[in-house]
Structures are given as C-alpha cells and as structure tokens.
C-alpha cells in the first residue's frame, strides 16, 4: 500500500530521491500517488481482472466489446499519465526515480501480464519504463514481476 511505502521510506531513511525532501518534488510524488488509485490502478486492474481472472473463474471468455471498452478506459488514463505526469521529464518527479515511478510501473505491469502491451506505440512510456527498470535493476524487476507476467498462462 502507499501508506506502507511512505512509512518505510521515512523509517529507514531511504535515499532522498525515493520520497524527496524538496517540497515541489514531494508534491509531484504525492500528487501521482493520490491520482493513481482510481486511474492507473483502477483501469489497469480492471483490464487484468476482465481479461485474465474473470474468464478463469467463469470458464467463459469476455465479449470483445466489453474488453474493448475496458481497454479504451485504460488508454485514456495512459494518455493523461504521459501528458500530466511524465511530460518531458525522465521520471515523474524530475531527473531521479521516486516512489511514484515505482508504483506506476508496478501497476502498469498488470495489463502487460494480461497480454496487453501498453508500451507498444508509446515511445515516451516505453523509454520511461526502460529508465525505471534500469534504476531498480533489470534482474530485480523481472523477479518482482515474474508472477504477474505469467498470469495469462493460467
């Protein structure tokens, strides 16, 4: 949860870039963390549930028109994310990775795990993903997402 991430950052005095002491940078992180619940998380999780879990539980594939609607909702928030939060910066809060970037990419991996490559055709988003993976470490990133990336094989 966001509350636990913020608690851990404060308790263990993580490097400043994760949750910046600079008030403007921290405001950008806080703004994203507040926005993402009903936007990136809400729409990304909905696509994952609709495309992977519901068919698994019901044994029935989702009607294509329903899946199309859910995908379009996600596309709208992805555009907002690029325009409002990424803009022309390497990371959400500026030149360094923060908790906002980590949370954002983790949430975006759910639709990817459902077989929807939301980075395709979005060079700004794909480049941001590459920077976040490199900052975290590619091997750690892959290990952390192994389960979700294999969910569509259930």
UniProtKB/TrEMBL annotation:
SUPFAM superfamilies linked to this entry: GST C-terminal domain-like (SSF47616)
Keyword 4Fe-4S (UniProt): no
Example of a GO biological process term: glutathione metabolic process
UniProt-listed InterPro entries: Glutathione-S-Trfase_C-like, Glutathione-S-Trfase_C_sf, GST_C, GST_C_Theta, GST_Theta
Enzyme class: transferase
Subcellular location field: Cytoplasm
Domain GST C-terminal: 22-154
Record GO terms (molecular function): glutathione transferase activity
PANTHER family for this protein: GLUTATHIONE S-TRANSFERASE THETA-1, PTHR43917
Listed name of the protein: glutathione transferase
């Amino acid at each position: 949860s966001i509350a636990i991430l913020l608690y851990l950052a404060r308790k263990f005095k993580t490097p400043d870039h994760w949750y910046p002491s600079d008030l403007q940078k921290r405001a950008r992180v806080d703004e994203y963390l507040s926005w993402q619940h009903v936007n990136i998380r809400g729409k990304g999780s909905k696509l994952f549930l609709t495309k992977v879990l519901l068919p698994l539980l019901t044994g029935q594939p989702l009607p294509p028109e329903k899946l199309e609607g859910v995908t379009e909702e996600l596309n709208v928030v992805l555009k907002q994310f690029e325009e409002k939060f990424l803009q022309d910066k390497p990371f959400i809060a500026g030149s360094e990775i923060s908790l906002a970037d980590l949370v954002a990419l983790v949430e975006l991996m759910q639709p990817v795990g459902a077989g929807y490559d939301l980075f395709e055709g979005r060079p700004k988003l794909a480049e941001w993903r590459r920077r976040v993976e490199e900052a975290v470490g590619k091997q750690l990133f892959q290990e952390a997402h192994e389960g979700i990336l294999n969910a569509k094989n259930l």
